[in-house]
Design a protein that fits this description.
Elements lengths: L7 E6 L5 H15 L6 H4 L1 H9 L5 E7 L2 E10 L20 E9 L8 H10 L6 E7 L3 H9 L3 E6 L8 E9 L2 E2 L1
Parallel strand pairs: 4-5
Antiparallel strand pairs: 1-2, 2-3, 3-4, 5-7, 6-7, 7-8
Helix pairs in contact: 1-3
């Protein structure tokens, strides 16, 4: 693993991304997903940025190597009773407050440094929800393996949009001190 070079993280809240920050997320996503950007579903990423950044409780963390952004993670709390993962799994404790991790993208030059996990953990740090959920393209076995190492369990699969990939539905329990 290469050394950790990120010097700082910037946290943005709901409706906070400026036009430049919005474009930064779009540019990082395009660079991170490379060849997949030919797919019309991935080309709609700007819509997803707008959709998520308008949600109550939205938070985005951008990692910087000096002055250069190298990755981001964002998400928002679920609306209680409308958690999309419910058809796949029922938590034992009955606690269902959920934070949805919507996106995690790291530039290719910053991969294999642990930066993806650091962005993820920074995003979830101090979250009050009981659970964190996310979706991973089922063809990305290495990414699924990473999330399992970070404490997520696969609980099902679903296609959220007619043109989206099939996604692995993954859930993780959180505690008051952050992810576990």
């Amino acid at each position: 693993m290469e050394p950790h070079n990120v010097t700082h993280y910037r946290r943005l809240g709901q409706d906070e991304p400026t036009t430049a920050e919005r474009q930064l997320l779009i540019d990082i996503h395009a660079a991170a997903f490379g060849d997949e950007m030919q797919d019309p579903f991935h080309q709609r990423f700007p819509w997803f940025v707008d959709h998520w950044s308008e949600r109550p409780g939205f938070v985005c963390v951008i990692g910087y190597d000096g002055e250069t952004a190298i990755g981001f993670a964002y998400g928002a709390p679920a609306v209680v009773g409308r958690e999309w993962w419910r058809p796949h799994w029922a938590p034992e404790s009955g606690e269902a407050s959920t934070f949805h991790v919507s996106e995690l993208a790291v530039l290719p030059r910053a991969r294999k440094t642990g930066e993806g996990q650091r962005l993820h953990d920074e995003l979830l740090q101090g979250r009050p929800e009981a659970l964190s959920t996310l979706l991973v393209d089922t063809t990305h076995a290495r990414v699924i393996a990473h999330y399992r190492e970070w404490g997520y369990a696969s609980v099902g699969a679903e296609r959220q949009f007619p043109d989206s990939p099939m996604y692995e539905v993954m859930v993780k329990r959180l505690d008051v001190d952050g992810p576990k």
